[in-house]
Amino acid sequence: MKCAAVILAAGAARRWGGGPKALARWRGRPLIDHVAAVAVAAGCAPVYRVLGAHRAEIEAGSPAQGVRTVFNAEWEAGLGTSIACAARSLLRDPAAERCDGLLILLCDQPLVDAALLRELMAEPGRSGRGIVFSEHGGGVSGPPAFVARRYWAELAELRGDAGARHVARAHPEDVAFVPAPNAREDMDTPEDYERLLKTPEASDPS
């Protein structure tokens, strides 16, 4: 399966307390570059990142080699506007014409790995479902998520904080889930970051 990836990093991250969370160091590089590298390792192409509140700082601090940057001027209106911004860009991008779907990733889930992304991409082939969420455990699901190309136009119309779940509610018969306990770990606060830095996954492989 050919799949694009979109990394959402447009928010102000007010709970982070200062500076862009996307530039926090993880395994020897900015967190947003780590997430992009995971997407590339999973076989995703093209890979987009959506910036907003801290655009200038992130562009200055992250090389983003091989990753395309999209600016969401409406980032303050909510996460849905970032997904819509990326979907519109993908629909116009010749490099995405043969993509079967896209993966929606957050820049603050550092424990998500390429193996999980490959599982999300493989699930449509197993179940025939076009929308696949990560099952975090305890009945909670969310990103990373796979969305088949047939729903990109609906993603492009998202507004406010409505995310892929808004599209899923319109097509409940086409939704599947993949176990992903590590996806529940995100970095909302500096305390979260310090805790995750103590996990084995934080070790720099170099």
Structure commentary:
- The strands form 2 sheets. The chain has a 7-stranded mixed beta sheet with strand order 5-4-1-6-8-7-9, sandwiched between helices.
- Helix content is 31%, strand content 23%.
- The longest helix has 14 residues, at 79-92.
- It has a single domain, classed as Alpha-Beta Complex (Spore Coat Polysaccharide Biosynthesis Protein SpsA, Chain A).
- The chain is an alpha/beta fold and 206 residues long.
Q: Any chance you could write out the topology, listing elements then pairs?
A:
Layout: E1 3-9, E2 25-26, E3 29-30, H1 31-41, E4 47-51, H2 55-61, E5 68-71, H3 79-92, E6 101-106, H4 114-127, E7 131-137, E8 140-148, H5 152-155, H6 164-170, E9 175-179, H7 190-196
Parallel strand pairs: 1-4, 1-6, 4-5, 7-9
Antiparallel strand pairs: 2-3, 6-8, 7-8
What key attributes describe this structure?
7 helices, alpha/beta, two-stranded antiparallel ribbon, Spore Coat Polysaccharide Biosynthesis Protein SpsA, Chain A, 206 residues
**Proportion in helices:** 25-40%
Q: What proportion of the residues form beta strands (DSSP E)?
A: 15-25%
**SSE order:** EEEHEHEHEHEEHHEH
**What characteristic shape results from the CA principal axes?**
globular
Looking at CATH, the homologous superfamily is: Spore Coat Polysaccharide Biosynthesis Protein SpsA, Chain A
Tally of separate domains: 1
Looking at the overall shape, the CATH architecture is Alpha-Beta Complex
Radius of gyration equals 16 Å
User: Which residues form runs of ≥5 with pLDDT under 50?
Assistant: none
Calculate the mean pLDDT score and round it: 93
Q: For the terminal residues, how far apart are their CA atoms?
A: 30 Å
CATH fold assignment: Spore Coat Polysaccharide Biosynthesis Protein SpsA, Chain A
Beta-strand segment tally: 9
Main beta sheet: strand number and arrangement? 7 strands, mixed
Write out the strand line-up for the largest beta sheet, numbering strands in chain order.
5-4-1-6-8-7-9
What's the CATH C level? Answer: Alpha Beta
- Structural class determined from secondary elements: alpha/beta
